[in-house]
Amino acid sequence: MTTTKRFKLISEDGHEFIISKVALRASKFIVDKLAEAGITEENCETMDPLLIPFHHVLVKQCVDWLNHHQCDAPKTRKIKYKHFSKWDKKFFKMESGELFALLNASHALGIDELMNMGCAVAAELIRGKNVEEIRKIYGIKSDEEQMEELLANGGEGTSTMTFTVEKY
């Protein structure tokens, strides 16, 4: 009887995670870094953990998603939130800032299916919302707010060029 070998990952803040070869295949970053480090199924249990450059909360979310979807990750870019499983809807129930951090991590780790699903969730967050509600969800300041902030900071970043328009 063969046992599935487990690969060790470590977050930037020192938390260790275990993941199977089947689950990690969906991450281009992890696959490439394991190859670069010479970590194989034969030596994975004796090698140092592979450093994943994110906080343990994000690494845990990615590992949980990879483990859950190791055999059935959606292979389409056009997945819609309404087609998510109950597990995925529960998984993505998070604040927008947390979602955007997860999107960043999934992009950096090359977990395309997770990123696509996260984008579907981000789109669902703004469905039917007006501009002000969308600004609030995404943390986008209005042009006036940005200008006030720049002026309050001494005009740092504002243009000093002036233009003249000649009349014909």
TrEMBL record:
InterPro entries (alphabetical): SKP1, SKP1-like, SKP1-like_dim_sf, SKP1/BTB/POZ_sf, Skp1_comp_dimer
Pfam families referenced in this protein's UniProt entry, alphabetically: Skp1
The entry's keywords: Ubl conjugation pathway
SKP1 component dimerisation domain ranges (all copies): 113-149
One of the GO BP terms on file: ubiquitin-dependent protein catabolic process
Similarity field: Belongs to the SKP1 family.
Name of this chain's protein: SKP1 component dimerisation domain-containing protein
Species assigned in the record: Caenorhabditis remanei (Caenorhabditis vulgaris)
